[in-house]
Specification:
The chain is of the alpha+beta class and 655 residues long. The chain is 63% helix and 11% strand. The longest helix has 33 residues, at 347-379.
Length: 655
């Protein structure tokens, strides 16, 4: 009965969404305030209904209701409770239900916190947001219904994919979806602005907090996914340029570009057309990511579904919304005249360069991701585009971006000179040079990558610190503490990016790997560490069987860690998994993977020493923290200019 209530709530949410996408839009066109105001309770009703629907599916998983096909295919009575709950979104149908729940959440948030928006713009934003929801409601109800009952319920389920039975699944997809779906708000604001005929500084202030929140969630989701791949898949890597990894990375790049572009609209009322285009494309790439994950057209270890019919439906959603928005954009683009004039060497010019680099980098990733599909469709050739292509094609844009960011952050608006701008950065340049010399001195082999990466990352970190000090006007620490939170947030995010640069370069340049057959009680050496395989024991888990090794690691005769890598088998699905054992450290990770038992005795053991790898996720945390700090700035929470009259052209009168 609870499942039927969930299904009914989903259908009711679909009907409310249809109302919300039509009546308020008509009201905004006619100027009928009652019709416009009805969007707010409709958005709240949608959220309530989706909470009921998602809650009903969660109850079905928690109680192991195997009369639901989805629960039968993705759960088991012996599965730990955390994986029963996370199993709700560890599949195609449940993850789509989470998707529309988050769509409803953002719509309700816009209704709740959008009181300072002009009524017509608010109604149109909520109407566009509801239209996206309606499309996905239809997708779920007609192609991916999670509430289908089975005529003869089995006694037990088929269990969840063992690779997904990890705490990372409980957090990684929800944060990713909060980012993916959060970009729908930027899309809704862009389309509403095109319909309304209003793109100005006030609009930029309204759209920036929503974009920043989505970017923060996406940053956290990508970082969690990278960390999960690092410790769970047993490959010792943090990024593989997998198509689904790229699917989340492309909108992240475009959202970062949108954030910087909106600054120019807010401060100088320039780049209006470009900012609108970025808002459309950022969400468009979120939909492209959904298509990649769920259509089966591209093979990936992360793919949720392999159903071309569902892929066609998502492709239709993509074509309707992105195609429709771009068509509207084409009609309005000529009307979005820029008010501000600036020289190439200025903060506006630096932000334009930032935008171009991020957008082109996203396009490069897109080409590399989609090219195998194009080659197979057009020429019938099976191609694989791997890390070498992405590393060579993507890295140059990031190098230029890292060089330009500290400069662009302190350039004045309208016009500037590079010589004058570099003066406050002399200290940062000296410290960066010192770091590069130090890295070169301790490098052994592949030193170029380490030196360049450490230099770029240090430049970003010291440049962010120099910018903060410059904003104090040399007034000392007291003034530093009184700086706006947005300044602190920007500096923190840029420093986080620098730390990630340093970590990626150093781990790639200095990591070491050892593969061998290890005999029990016979020491072997990897780098500066001595390791000994003591034994391999059978361990029975809650829903798996494991062979767990005990490996003792020491350095210079002093114990460092006891590592327990495993090889697991999940009997229900008959699928083996590898569980790495990692000794985490500030300067390095010691990473050990257990392989198969060998015919001549001993066990295959793979050992990695990963210097500075934890700094990758520390940098990601700082980037997300920087975004959160900025969100607490009052200027992000209170949009100015809400009372300004709506104009039917895309220009803003001179002050």
């Amino acid at each position: 009965m609870i499942a039927e209530l969930g299904h009914f709530a989903l259908i009711l949410a679909f009907m409310v969404g249809i109302y919300q996408m039509t009546i308020p839009m008509v009201g905004a066109h006619k100027g009928w305030h009652g019709w416009m105001d009805s969007a707010r309770p409709a958005a709240m009703a949608q959220l309530l209904l989706m909470v009921l629907s998602f809650g009903a599916l969660t109850i079905a998983f928690v109680t192991s209701d195997f009369s639901l096909r989805l629960v039968y295919e993705n759960s088991h009575t012996a599965k730990p409770m955390i994986y029963k709950i996370s199993g709700v979104w560890g599949n195609h149908e449940g993850s789509m239900l989470l998707w529309v729940l988050i769509l409803a959440l953002f719509g309700a948030a816009a209704a709740l916190f959008g009181g300072n928006l002009p009524p017509s713009l608010r109604a149109r934003v909520l109407g566009v947001q509801a239209s996206v929801s309606v499309a996905f409601y239809a997708f779920i109800i007609f192609t991916s219904n999670p509430f289908w009952r089975m005529g003869n319920p089995p006694f037990d389920g088929r269990d969840l994919n063992p690779l997904l039975q990890d705490p990372g699944l409980a957090f990684h997809p929800p944060f990713l979806y909060l980012g993916y779906v959060g970009l729908s708000m930027a899309f809704s604001f862009a389309v509403a602005a095109l319909i309304e005929g209003r793109v100005d500084a006030a609009w930029a202030r309204w759209v920036r907090p929503w974009t920043l929140a989505a970017w923060v969630f996406l940053t956290i989701g990508i970082a969690l996914g990278s960390w999960w791949a690092y410790y769970e898949l047993g490959w010792g890597g943090f990024w593989f340029w997998d198509p689904v990894e790229n699917a989340s990375f492309m909108p992240w790049l475009l959202a970062a570009a949108l954030l910087h572009s909106a600054v120019v609209v807010e401060k100088r009322e320039a780049l209006k057309s470009w900012t609108i285009l970025l808002a459309i494309m950022a969400f468009g790439f979120s939909l492209i990511g959904t298509f990649i994950v769920r259509s089966g057209v591209i093979t990936s270890v992360h793919s949720f579904a392999n159903d071309p019919e569902r892929g066609v439906f998502i492709l239709a959603i993509l074509a309707v919304f992105v195609g429709g928005a771009l068509t509207l954009y084409a009609f309005r683009a000529t009307e979005m005249t820029a008010k501000g004039v600036f020289s190439p060497v200025s903060r506006e010019g630096a932000l334009v360069l930032n935008n171009v680099l991020l957008a082109v980098a996203a396009f490069v990733v897109f080409i590399g991701t989609i090219w195998p599909l194009v080659a197979e469709m057009v020429w019938g050739r099976v191609l694989s585009v791997g890390p070498p292509f992405f590393n060579q094609a993507f890295t140059p844009f990031m190098i230029v971006l890292a060089i330009a960011l500290p400069l662009g952050s302190i350039l004045p608006w309208k016009r500037a000179t590079l010589a004058r701008t570099l003066r406050p950065l002399r200290g940062a340049l000296i410290l960066t040079g010192a770091i590069m010399v130090l890295v070169f001195a301790v490098s052994t082999g592949n030193s170029g990558l380490a030196v360049i990466g450490a230099g770029l990352g240090s430049w970003l970190v010291f440049g962010a610190l120099a910018e903060l000090w410059l904003r104090t006007g040399n007034s000392g620490a007291g003034r530093l503490l009184r700086l706006p939170r947005a300044d602190w947030g920007k500096a923190t995010a840029h420093a986080g990016l620098g730390i990630t640069f340093i970590a990626v370069a150093l781990v790639q340049a200095w990591q070491s790997e050892d593969v061998r057959v290890a005999q029990v009680d016979q020491p072997f050496r990897v780098g500066a560490y001595d390791l000994v395989l003591r034994d391999v024991q059978r361990v029975d888990g809650s829903n798996y069987l494991s062979q767990m090794a005990t490996i003792e690691a020491s350095r210079d005769g002093r114990p460092v860690a006891t590592l327990t890598p495993e090889k697991r088998v999940y009997p229900v699905q008959g699928m083996p998994t590898t569980e790495a054992s990692i000794d985490y450290g500030f300067w390095r990770d010691l990473y050990v993977v257990l392989g198969d038992e060998q015919v001549g005795g001993g066990w295959a053991v793979r050992t990695y020493i990963k210097p500075f790898v934890s700094w990758i996720w520390a940098g990601s945390i700082l980037m997300a923290l920087g975004g959160l700090i900025s969100l607490t700035d009052r200027r992000y929470r209170v949009a100015a200019g809400a009372s300004r009259p709506v104009r039917r052209d895309m220009t803003v009168p001179a002050e």
